[in-house]
Structures are given as structure tokens and as C-alpha cells.
Amino acid sequence: MRALIFGAVAALAFAGSAMAGPVTLKANPVDDDGRVTLGDLFDGAGSAANVVVGNRAGPSIVFEAGQLQSMARQAGLDWANPTGLRRVVVRNAAMAPQGAVTQAAAAAGPAPALARAAPVRAPAYADRIISRNDMVEVAYEVGGVRLAITGRAEGNAAEGQRIAVRNLQSGRTIDAVAVAPGQAVAGPAAQSARTQQFAAR
């Protein structure tokens, strides 16, 4: 990881002339080749769009917001992080198209239920794996079909706890279960994750 960060910083140092000014974080950042660039993350990246800031080895990669701000600034970009995000998730663009996740899930099986209630117990800070305003990737799997969408956490959650995640494109709130930092599951997998967590206690 250190080598990756140092490599990204070095690449950004050579891109210092890319003065594109203020930029806006994309609602659902994705990449299609495993190389995450500033253009994958931000609208208005200009000539700094091709600067690589990380390499995604799995279905997603999570960046600390402060880390992104620093790398963007070195490339001449100004991201103010107006909503106070703590983490940003970038996922594989080969997954289901973001705008079609809800419709595709409905075709494959029951859609994730809308959040109706807050978690029963607010997790202690040390137990949290997701905090309010974190960007979270929610996976929905049924019949061998896996769909995913990225949204903003509406509260805090420890592993195995319910978390409401708001889809930034549709405005809908999905009732999910936290399974890892920046990751949650909905649908049948959510019940399984809650059951396993309770059994481990």
C-alpha cells in the first residue's frame, strides 16, 4: 500500500501543471481497467483526468477523503468535500449500470426494502466499520446475479448491524447490513449477515 501511495504521489508531482481548478466528486465513481484516475473520481478534472491515484485489485477500492484531497491538490485540483465525506468507494464499471440497479434487481427478485427504522443499538466508535456520510457500496445478490450500487450512509454501523444507505442518483434509501468498511449487503444476504453476526456473539 505504501508503494502504491508513493507511486501515486510521484505521478501527481509530474502533473503539477494540470490546473483545472474546483472539481466535483462523482456520485458513483467507477473505473473500467483497475487503474483509478482523477477523471474516474471527479467531474471537471481537465488535463489531470488521466493521473492515476490507485489500483483496484478487487471489485472495489476505498480511499480516505483526506488522502484524495491531498492527491487532487497536488494535481492542481480543488475538491472542497462540502458534505464532509470520510471515505470514497470506487467500484468496477463492469458491474450493473448504476441507473439500472433498481430495475434489474426487481427483475431478478424482490427489491431491497426501504429503510423504516434506525439500528436498535448505536455502535461504539471502536466497533464502527461504517460512519455517517461514508460512501458505501451496497451489494444485492439473488439467483446467482450480483448487483451493486454506491450511496451515502445515513448513520453509523458495526459489522452485522443494519444501516440505511441513500442512493445519490434516485434519492431512495436502501435498508442494508454492514459487512466491512465501506461495504454492505441488501436482500437475502443481509439476513444471512445479521444471523451470522448474532451467532458469533
From TrEMBL:
The keyword Signal applies. Residues 1-20 form the signal peptide. This is Flagella basal body P-ring formation protein FlgA. Residues 126-183 form the Flagella basal body P-ring formation protein FlgA SAF domain. Keywords: Cell projection, Cilium, Flagellum, Signal. The keyword Signal applies. It comes from Brevundimonas lenta. GO terms for biological process: bacterial-type flagellum assembly. InterPro entries: Flagellar_FlgA, SAF_FlgA.
